[in-house]
Amino acid sequence: GGIITQTPKFLIGQEGQKLTLKCQQNFNHDTMYWYRQDSGKGLRLIYYSITENDLQKGDLSEGYDASREKKSSFSLTVTSAQKNEMAVFLCASSIGEYNQAPLFGEGTRLSVL
Amino acid sequence: AQKVTQTQTSISVVEKTTVTMDCVYETRDSSYFLFWYKQTASGEIVFLIRQDSYKKENATVGHYSLNFQKPKSSIGLIITATQIEDSAVYFCAMRGGNNAGAKLTFGGGTRLTVRP
């Protein structure tokens, strides 16, 4: 079976810092996603990618950059961390067919001091 | 633009009863796919069940079933014979079949508590 691995699991940053989160999947999935989840809230789409080197903005892309240099990996950069920001960033992946449910990684928990 | 709305923020039921969670959606796509996920207390997100918009039959998987009412843009999740371990947050999500492409949009979630 495959797995989606997000690193790091916990990330503590300073205000204004650029922070990078990584996601790797070994399912050979075409599409990958980054979501942000604030405490007690739903998932908001930041970026997604339908193939290597493709990037599509979600509803929350401002303040973030993404990169898909390989099919198996998708990274997300917080361009300038906001003071007291706390959220979980979730990576997901799926095959190209739209009727297939994306699978999720365990998340990266971000805290900004 | 896609939009998914879950109006029930929390529901509490007694074990072994049936619960229904509501979800309504908006889309311009003629073909689309609706998903329900469960987020456990540990934060793990697990896919439960899917409904394809072009299918009239309601999907069923184990003790999960869907109430798909296309004219009302509604996709309810029904859990029968609830168990304590069904306590979690449930999310409805939608993926477009054409214009919206691979974009997957989530609702705000419903917290289910199953008590003894």
Distance between the termini of chain B: 41 Å
Level of helix content of chain A? under 10%
Which ranges of chain B are low-confidence, i.e. pLDDT below 50, for 5 or more consecutive residues?
Answer: none
Can you tell me the overall shape of chain B?
globular
Tally of helical segments of chain B: 0
The SSE string of chain B, one letter per element, is EEEEEEEEEEEE
Strand content of chain B: over 45%
Radius of gyration from the alpha-carbon trace of chain B, in angstroms? 14 Å
Quaternary state reads heterodimer
Strand content of chain A: over 45%
Describe this structure in words.
Chain A is mostly beta strands and 113 residues long. Helices cover 0% and strands 53% of the residues of chain A. In chain A, a hairpin with a 5-residue loop joins β4 (31-37) and β5. Chain A starts with a strand and ends with a strand. The mean pLDDT of chain A is 94. Helices cover 0% and strands 53% of the residues of chain B. Chains A and B meet through β4, β5, β9 and β10 of A and β5, β6, β10 and β11 of B.
